[in-house]
Amino acid sequence: MNESVSIRPHGDGPAVHHERGQRSVFCGLTGIVWLHRKIQDAFFLVVGSRTCAHLIQSAAGVMIFAEPRFATAILDQRDLAGLADVHDELDSVVGRLLERRPDIKLLFLVGSCPSEVIKIDLVRAAQRLNAKHAPKARVISYSGSGIEKTFTEGEDACLAALVPTLPAEPATAAPSLMVVGALADIVEDQFAGLFKDMGVDARFLPARRADAMPAVGPNTRFILAQPFLAETARALEARGARRIAAPYPLGAEGTTLWLKAAAETFDVPAEKFEAAIAPGLARAQMTLARQREKLGGKTIFFFPDSQLEIPLARFLAREVGMKPVDVSTPYLHRALMAEELAMLPAETRLNEGSDVDAQLDRVREKRPDITVCGLGLANPLEAEGLTTKWAIELLFTPIQGYDQAGDLAELFTRPLARRSRLEV
Amino acid sequence: MQLTLWTYEGPPHIGAMRVATGMKGLHFVLHAPQGDTYADLLFTMIERRAERPPVTYTTFQARDLGTDTAEVFKDAARAAYERHHPRAIIVGASCTAELIQDDPGGLAKTLGLPCPVIPLELSAYSRKENWGAAETLYRLARGLAGERRERPARARPLANLLGPTALGFRHRDDIIEITKLLNALGVDVNVTAPMGATPDDLTRLGDADFNVVLYPEVALPAAQYLEKAHGQPYTKTVPIGIGATRDFIAEVRKIANLPETAELPTSNLPWWSRSVDSTYLTGKRVFIFGDGTHVLAAERIAREEIGFDVVGLGTYSREFAREVRERAKLHNIEALITDDYLDVEKAIADAHPELVLGTQMERHISKRLRLPCAVISAPTHVQDFPARYAPQMGFEGANVIFDSWVHPLMMGLEEHLLGMFREDSEFHEHASHLGVSSAPAPAPIPTAAEQPVAAAPTAAAASSPVEPQWTDEATKELKKIPFFVRGKARGNTEKYARERGLTTISVGTLYDAKAHYGR
Ligand code: SF4
Ligand code: SF4
């Protein structure tokens, strides 16, 4: 909100506690639920167990019946005993699948804990299948396993696996902007429009279609729209692209700083920048002022979940006046979070990692006004009289950009409003 | 390797969780990767439980694999005991931990925890959820019920209720209903397990005179064990439906040597079903799919108590395949034994039922095929864990079943009538019981060709590019058909014409179609 905030602030933010213990988080397979909707001609085939299939079914809810583009190849006793050659089995499953779904242009083989523990080489399998099915359908692999990936890291692994397959941009190409991270289509369109008004042509990774993925090269500048994309950032840098450091586009301030970082990189004149953002910024500030009345002064506690916790806490603290008392993130990538950390209130207790029992002890002691947590914890905490906001909704709902800033705050207002209404 | 999108059952450790979560004072230490904790939300969201399931997951990660996942397990088990002080612990491995071959049972033993520790072998790659629940209950009964002992002669016999678990379809209310029924018969309930029981309660299982098996999927192995080890007979009839409840009562009386004097509750189903309002239910084509217990019960109710025709019968419980096949023979149909919902979808589409009784999946399939549907079996979603009392078992259960099966049909009929009335001017959408309405004049009545085809909206369009046209005579003839079947007649006729590639519908076509669809 405060225009005068420095875009590359100094200072490292609050001290970080490290926790280790029982983790109550989704595995990286869950990313499939939103990724398959984003890339409209991709199919996600998990190579795993009945547990993996059950997880996706539990996380995907309704979507499971909308002719979804994901499935699980369930390993059985025969595969484990070596009676069946896993690679032959996989080839025939993929063959049948692509025959049945000729609309599929990009097939992801998604590794799981079981496939990794028994060391099924999905990278090789993908190469072999790619040789067989390209160019009709390309085949790429990545891991979404719980032993490797926590929740949103599944998207990171998926996009990082896509990067080596992106078309190469010639070294002589004009500088280009790539926005990285799956965004709701509506948000993507808003951002594309804003950049266009600034005279910058932005492309998005992932694209909505397999054959429209953006090219990458030494003149590519990329900006992360999501904080959990460390591996993808590294893969892009390995192809010569350079990252634009910025806070994440949550809230009016976050969105402004994020856009500004990109605009500065592309030497957008100040008036042009101001003119482009002015209407959106004004709308966001107006809606946030209303939310501030409801949320100002309230304390908030984050369980670790998606790596969105820090930018969310920053937004809630600075733009609607909440007090983040305890913020946990499953992983903290310092370099990618530097701008955010500098803006987080110094008195916030910041934790990396998870020890769910210790966190439960703290939440009971601190009794925050709102607790952001997973679905396995929400009802039990409500039953203890705490107000909760379930975290997964923050991944499924459009929350980035100016025109979603009010909605984002509203996600936190609603549970409080509900609690104050109920008389029984 | 099996390509799967939707699974009717989770992996076996989910079954173990259902047992542990149903009980009190039992803790489950599950060797599993981070991520497998998703299972908590089934209990906290779908069943709306107010506590976390009593499960500690080791949540090992890749970096633990190189070193010592066994240590991770031991730490977690020790910490779980310290924090929760359970009266007993069960330990097991999820699919991934099964592969890394730590032995949870052996490891837990070395810790010397001051409570019974019962190891489970869950066979994640060949078994499923219900088997996991049954195996867990069996291991608990074996581990905790102790030695066979003398039972005193009692004025009122004692029974255990076996089988209800967390996340069971209507288990909460079935317990209440059957407890009431047994009490009315003169039987007291000793232990209900696993739902509501503590490990200490399980040590008293042997005190009962017999066992009531509510859900064979879960309770049968434990009941068979208790019969052998403690000499307790168990009931074979599952009391869902009027006939089955009466048989169950007779069975209990025989096992417990009870006189036939007790005054029992009654049910509305027999009269509701005989009342003339129900005549239209006769011979309605019904398709039934679900777990073995509920499918077998539903088949009997459909056949004997409501008067439906069963045109499809199947189950995803392979353990019940033989019985379900036997029952299917009564209807001259082939039973469908599968856990692939695509097979079920195809079978439903082929059977042309007028009502589908099934699980959550059949609900979705029915929605897609635009068929009325009622849920009779797990897996179900949050709306089938209702706030109100809604048993399936006993006499009140029969009331609930009658209402919930007939309700979607009534709705179906209403919808159908509304669809037909739409073309009669007095039923236009702005008509009001209050007389002349101030609403704007009705929109022009759509012609036959514009009307949505009620009978077969999906199959239709594909078969023929040209819409068959009604001749004037045929249109006149159609108007002579009573209005309440006119819409159906038109839909059927157009479908019939389309399927045969006819471009015009004559009076002859109308009657050919009637003959074709008539039964
Ligand atoms: S944590 Fe591992 S085993 Fe569990 S669902 Fe995720 S990938 Fe599958
Ligand atoms: S739509 Fe609702 S009822 Fe159906 S599976 Fe999804 S969440 Fe369950």
UniProtKB/TrEMBL annotation, chain B:
Residues 470-514 form the Light-independent protochlorophyllide reductase subunit B-like C-terminal domain. Its EC number is 1.3.7.7. Residues 12-409 form the Nitrogenase/oxidoreductase component domain. The keyword RNA-binding does not apply. Pathway: Porphyrin-containing compound metabolism; bacteriochlorophyll biosynthesis (light-independent). It holds the Pfam family Oxidored_nitro. Keywords: 4Fe-4S, ATP-binding, Bacteriochlorophyll biosynthesis, Chlorophyll biosynthesis, Iron, Iron-sulfur, Metal-binding, Nucleotide-binding, Oxidoreductase, Photosynthesis. The keyword Secreted does not apply. One of its GO terms (biological process) is photosynthesis, dark reaction. Component of the dark-operative protochlorophyllide reductase (DPOR) that uses Mg-ATP and reduced ferredoxin to reduce ring D of protochlorophyllide (Pchlide) to form chlorophyllide a (Chlide). This reaction is light-independent. The NB-protein (BchN-BchB) is the catalytic component of the complex. This is Light-independent protochlorophyllide reductase subunit B.
